[in-house]
Structure formats: C-alpha cells, structure tokens
C-alpha cells in the first residue's frame, strides 16, 4: 500500500516592515508550508505616494515579502527591487516592484488577486496574503487623549500610544475584514508567528482587523511573538518585553500569546549609530515575571545580529528556534494519537 504523503507543517507569519522578510528568507529553506499575512496600513515613502496617486494598498511591504519568498534568479529580483534615482518628479524614489503591484491591483480590481498572480509569476514558494483587500488607515489614541490617523504621523508624534485601530481609507462606517483565505490560514495553522517588527505600526494593524483578531482568539495553533530587540522611538520607549506582550493581549482582549522569543545577548555600548537608525531607542529590558503572569512560555536565547551599526534579529537563529518549537508540537500530537 502506498504511504500517504506527509503533510507539511503550516506556519503563518504576520507583520510588516523590514523584520518579516528576515524571517521568511530563512523559513523558506525549511520543509514547511508558509503563509505570510502582510499589513496594508503603511502610508510612508514610495508606497504612500503611489497610494495617494492611484488609491491602492501600499505595496512596499508586499514587494519585500514577495522577494523574500521568490525563487527567481538574483538579476530578476534586483530588477524588481530597483528604485529609480532619476530627478523625474514622479519616478524618483519609486521601486519598480511597487509600480508593478499597483498596476496589477488596478487590472485585477484589488490587491489580493494581484498578489496571487504576481506570486505565480515570481515563483513564490508559499502564500502571500494582504491582510485586507483594500487600503486601510491606522488610527491611534495617545495617553493624553489626542488622536491621529496615519502610520507615519503616529510614529512622528513621539507620544505614548494608548490604543490603535484600523479603518478603510475610502469608506465610511464599515469595519475592515480580511479575505477568507487569511482566516482559513490562521485556523488551520500549526504555528502563528507575530513579528519581529514595529509593535503598533507593523504588527497590530493586522490584528485589529475584526475577523483576524477573532481567528487568533480561536485558533488551536501555538501563537509565538518575536519580541523586538530595541525599543522604538515614538512607539515603545521604556517598554519591557512583558510590556510588548501586554499591549498585544490587551488589544486582543485575551491572553493570545502562548510563547515569546526574547533576545538575551547584550548590544555593545556605543555600537548603535542612532543617527542612521533613528527609530531605535535602547535595548528592551526583561521582565520574565511579567511574561509568566500573562501565561507566556519564555524562550530566551541569543537572537542578535549586529550589522551596519544596528541591532537586528538573526533570522537563522530565530527560525531554528521556531523549528524546535514546531517539533515539540509534532511530538505532543504524536503522543496524543
């Protein structure tokens, strides 16, 4: 009798910014079924300009995730990532990939179908799902009671954020929803990974979509948060690792985070170039008692990569730990059969 084909473990990675591709590039080498759920609430840089011109989902984060999971040769990827440096008023600063995503979004009447088609063209190994099929706006209430709309404006305010939520950028009074494929991926996952990335502007915009938050509260998958190494100016200054988790759980109105990955390797004094990496504030302090009080399993290890006078996650070390945690889930499931 022919052996039944082995089912590949399903991992959903959620976030945005520069942290998500770091994990995905290393995860691609593992024998897992990857789904990346990418924020659509960015309004800065080339993405923001294109969004204002043609009213499509900002493509920058999606472009970087496509490249991270693509099987195309380097030349094609370099072309897709190429950013114009001409003095032309429109093209200067735009990445070719952003323009392609914007064009396909218009052709296919939405970002979701466009990304699926482009993923096939780019030979993506895995699934890339925009968190919503329409552009969203990030809103924030600060501790002083004031509010702002727009990811870049919220970060630039440099005020303590109390709460964030998302609204459709081109509709009034309607709650944003993720497409069913996103919800199905969350509900059938073996492991869900949040981060690394900006807490309020890269991770929470995904979770604040109503049916996404509901799915995270109901999923049987292990939900893992990769805690940031450095606090972020204008977002998480003076935060401990427990504070990061507390914000996630409070926004989801439930202790959703099962496991948190915490870097314990010290960033050398005077290493960080704070002018170049002006969003970095200081290294995140540890509060293991506060994490345990929220029901978290804590995995603390050296996840640090020092490069270009900045502190980042070492994608290989993080993915190795994710695979170790996934193996523990597989072992428990096998024992239960």
Short characterization:
The chain has 13 helices and 14 strands. With 337 residues, the chain is α/β, with parallel strands linked by helices.
Descriptive report:
The chain is α/β, with parallel strands linked by helices. It has two domains: 188 residues, CofD-like domains (Rossmann fold, 3-Layer(aba) Sandwich); 87 residues, no CATH class. Helix content is 39%, strand content 20%. It is built from 13 helices and 14 strands. The strands form four sheets. Strands 3-2-1-7-8-10-12 form a seven-stranded parallel sheet, sandwiched between helices. The chain has a three-stranded antiparallel sheet with strand order 5-4-6. Helix 1 links the parallel strand 1 and strand 2. Helix 2 packs parallel to helix 5, helix 5 packs across helix 6 and helix 8 packs parallel to helix 10. The radius of gyration is 19 Å and the shape is globular. The two termini are 21 Å apart. About 4% of the residues have low confidence.
């Amino acid at each position: 009798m022919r052996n039944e084909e082995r089912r590949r473990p399903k991992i959903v990675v959620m976030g945005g910014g520069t942290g998500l591709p770091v994990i995905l590039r290393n995860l691609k080498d593992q024998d897992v079924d990857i789904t990346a759920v990418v924020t659509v609430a960015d309004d800065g840089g080339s993405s923001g300009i294109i969004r204002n011109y043609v009213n499509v989902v900002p493509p920058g984060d999606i472009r970087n995730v496509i490249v991270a999971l693509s099987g195309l040769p380097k030349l094609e990827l370099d072309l897709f990532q190429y950013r114009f440096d001409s003095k032309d008023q429109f093209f200067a600063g735009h990445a070719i990939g952003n323009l392609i995503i914007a064009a396909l979004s218009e052709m296919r009447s939405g970002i979701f179908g466009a990304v699926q088609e482009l993923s096939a063209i780019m030979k993506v190994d895995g699934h890339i799902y925009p968190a919503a099929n329409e552009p969203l706006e990030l809103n924030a209430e600060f501790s002083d009671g004031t509010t702002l709309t727009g990811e870049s404006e919220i970060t630039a305010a440099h005020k303590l954020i109390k709460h964030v939520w998302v609204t459709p950028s081109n509709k009034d009074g309607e709650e944003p929803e993720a497409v069913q494929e996103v919800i199905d991926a969350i509900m059938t996952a073996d492991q869900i990974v949040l981060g690394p990335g900006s807490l309020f502007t890269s991770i929470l915009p995904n979770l604040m979509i109503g049916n996404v938050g509901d799915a995270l509260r109901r999923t049987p998958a292990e939900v893992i948060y990769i805690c940031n190494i450095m606090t972020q100016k204008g977002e998480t200054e003076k935060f401990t690792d427990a504070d990061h988790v507390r914000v996630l759980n409070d926004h989801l109105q439930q202790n959703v985070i099962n496991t948190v990955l915490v870097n314990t390797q010290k960033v050398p004094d005077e290493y960080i170039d704070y002018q170049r990496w002006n969003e970095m504030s200081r290294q995140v302090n540890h509060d293991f008692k506060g994490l345990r009080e929220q029901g978290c399993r804590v995995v603390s290890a050296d996840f640090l990569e020092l490069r270009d006078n900045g502190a980042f996650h070492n994608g290989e070390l993080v993915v190795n730990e994710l695979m170790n945690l996934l193996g523990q889930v597989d072992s428990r499931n096998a024992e239960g059969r």
